[in-house]
Amino acid sequence: MRPDRLVTADELAIDPVVAAPFLLGCELESTGEAGTVRVRLVEVEAYRGKDDPASHCYRGRTPRNDVMWGPAGHLYVYFVYGMHFCANVVCAGDGEPGAVLVRAAEVVHGADIVRARRPSARSVTALKGPAILTSALGLDRAHNGVDLLDPASPVRLLTGERVPPARIRTGPRVGVAAAMDTPWRFWVDDSPAVSTYRRGGRVRPR
DNA sequence: GGTTCGATTCCG
DNA sequence: GGAATCGAACCA
After folding, report:
1. Total structural domains in chain A?
2. What pLDDT does residue A206 have?
3. What's chain A's average pLDDT?
4. Distance C5 C1' – A201 CA (angstroms)
5. What GO molecular function annotations does the UniProt record carry, in alphabetical order (predicted)?
6. Which of A16, A26, A58, A157 could form a disulfide with A98 if both were Cys (CB 3.0 to 4.6 A apart)?
């Protein structure tokens, strides 16, 4: 039987690099007007704080990244490329901000809702990409800061079936130019939903 | 106040 | 390979 329970704050109040592999296999459940969609995370990326040039928090606290400095277990949603939203699970360690970007997932429940939200999508079950994930779950800026560990929240984080460590792969983060040497992307090796890797652009000189 | 470019996706 | 499309961050 599935260990279906909410993730606890203790499990996320740690270094995002440690929390990231833990989140593989966990499930996000989003309830909106259309109903409830539930997905199993199969690809994530860790972002730290001032020691991570790729992190939104690298240059300090701003209104945009504020949620990343708050309590673990909240949802950090940001708008990018003028049209997409990406979602992160906030983590914390050593008084530094941190979060784990959810990059890809498999739909566990609510495929009909996902199809309605993404009519022209190739697959209704494989959500390969962070913005595809948020659109399937119906997440946008209104969900920024939501507590994922509260059963009454519109979006919740549950422990799913554990992923055996042997099936977890790591590599550099997608689309990130800085910190190419840190393998902080984690994915489930045998999942068909894992996104395709793209290198980041050139590192911009300061 | 103006400019740059992104933790992306989809189409050609 | 390139467009779409907005705003946060950065520089003047």
Report:
1. 1
2. 46
3. 94
4. 19
5. alkylbase DNA N-glycosylase activity; DNA binding
6. A16
